[in-house]
Amino acid sequence: MQLQRRHFITALGGAAMAAPLLASCSRPDSPKTGGTDATGGTSATPKSPVPPPVSGEPGTLLSQEPQDTAIKGARAWRIRYISRDVNDVAHESSGLVIAPAVRGDNRPVLTWCHGTTGLGDAACPSAQPDPARELITYFEPRATQQIDYGVPGLQGFIDDGWVVCATDYQGLGTPGMHQYTVNITNARDGVYIARAAAKLDTGAGATLGCAGWSQGGGAAAAVAELDKDDFGDLKLIGTVAMSPGVSKIGLEIPSPMTAALSGATVAPDSHLVMLLAGIQAANPSKLKLPEAFSPLGVDIIEAAWNNQPVHHLNDTIARMFRLKGAVLNPKPPNFDAWKAAIVASSAAQRKPIAPVLVCVDSFDGGTVIPVAWQTGYVDAVEGFGGAVEVRDYPHDDHFSLPQSCVGDARAWLNKLRG
Questions:
Q1: What average pLDDT does range 230-259 have in this prediction?
Q2: With the CA atoms of 178, 184, 186 and 191 taken in that order, what torsion angle do they form, in degrees rounded to the nearest 10?
Q3: Residue 391 forms beta bridges with which residues?
């Protein structure tokens, strides 16, 4: 397929604005040599998990560069912008903006919140080959990369006149460790990229729709619970949560993914390890890694977080657990503080400000996010009096769901936009 190269002329500095982005989303540098740690490897990484302070208003566009795309009738950019986290601390994020090639005005904007990729730069979606594309998942036979990336149904959204934004989330290609499943932080990254996209020549209007999957399903749920100030001039018409990973619900409903929290003699799943590392990254003055992790667990995180995406990290954890023992601290001295921080950062805390569509992958009880978690979120929304619709996809597992349900999601959002 012939890639379409779209040339972009800007009065904002062109190549000078693109240079910081190229540096932030490039392949991670090789780890620096350090002392031997409990994992048997070196402990130093080239990137600090603590980002430097950022000044500027959320939604500020920091840099932009044209991005090749094979999507027909589309042009794309990779951008860097300012967002803020659950604790209102400003940070840099990056991502993609894809728009119809034909000029237009007052176009609706879709913000896509992606699923789990990892904690650091190796998991940056927009740094993958041909990133402005349809979703491809790690578990597909044709996959060549270590993460899922792309936007499901992207061609259809472009054909329907949407401007599509796809945040990487903070920490994935930008400074600091990613605040994994910190739903509110991830949601704000999804909204502020849409505000930054308004500075590009896309014809973007004020109508905002949202869709997300897995981790991004939790972010999409949280988008509908954000404050009015987060949206600026944008008006949210609806949000689609595909197999939503809502952290608060995950704590409330036990599952194999969180079994290691109860002291089970199994290796902790990488999603659980990343959840704990991510909430600590969001609350560095309140929470410390050695409270929730063993010395081995701390060494694994410090050595691997920026270089190993989720599935690689899972293999590392399983091997080191079998070889050397506990990764988690079975009795954290202040686990109530950890749980409180997780709940405070989660979706399912208030009535959504717009309708919600939940797409459930019920094959085999939910192959990554348990069906009980997905319906638990629905129950929470209904308890708040929110408008929520549920569609079940019994023949889809976690990784086939987005492509199976995105047609329904697009039709639902198109109906809401009027």
A1: 94
A2: -140
A3: 359
Q: What is the 3-state secondary structure (H, E, C) of the chain?
A: CCCECCCCCCCCCCHHHHHHHHHHCCCCCCCCCCCECCCCCECCCCCCCCCCCCCCCCCCEEEEEEECECCCCEEEEEEEEEEECCCCCEEEEEEEEEEECCCCCCEEEEEEECCCCCCCHHHCHHHCCCCECCCECCCCCCCCCCCCECCCCHHHHHHCCCEEEEECCCCCCCCCCCCCCCHHHHHHHHHHHHHHHCCCCCCEEEEEEEEEECHHHHHHHHHCCCCHHHHCCCEEEEEEEECCCCHHHHHHCCCHHHHHHHCCCCCCCHHHHHHHHHHHHHCCCCCCHHHHECHHHHHHHHHHCCCCCHHHHHHHHHHHHHHHCCCECCCCCCHHHHHHHHHHCCCCCCCCCCCEEEEEECHHHCCCCCHHHHHHHHHHHHHCCCCEEEEEECCCCCCCHHHHHHHHHHHHHHHHHC
d(CA 296, CA 229): 42
Residue 202 has pLDDT above 50, yes or no: yes
Summarised one tens digit per residue, pLDDT across range 203-241 is 999 999 999 999 999 999 999 999 999 999 999 999 999
pLDDT (tens digit per residue) in 30-70: 333 333 344 444 444 479 999 999 999 999 999 999 999 99
- pLDDT band for position 330 (cuts 50, 70, 90): confident
Strands 74-84 and 61-67: antiparallel
Residue 114 in tokens? 């992606």
Name the amino acid, one letter, at 179.
Answer: Q
Chain mean pLDDT for the chain = 90
| Predicted pLDDT of residue 416 | 98
Residue with tokens 């209904």: 382
HSE-up of 368 (CA within 13 Å, CB side)? 23
Report pLDDT for 264: 66
pLDDT > 70: percent of the chain: 89
- Let me know: does 352 contact 383? Beta carbons within 8 Å: no
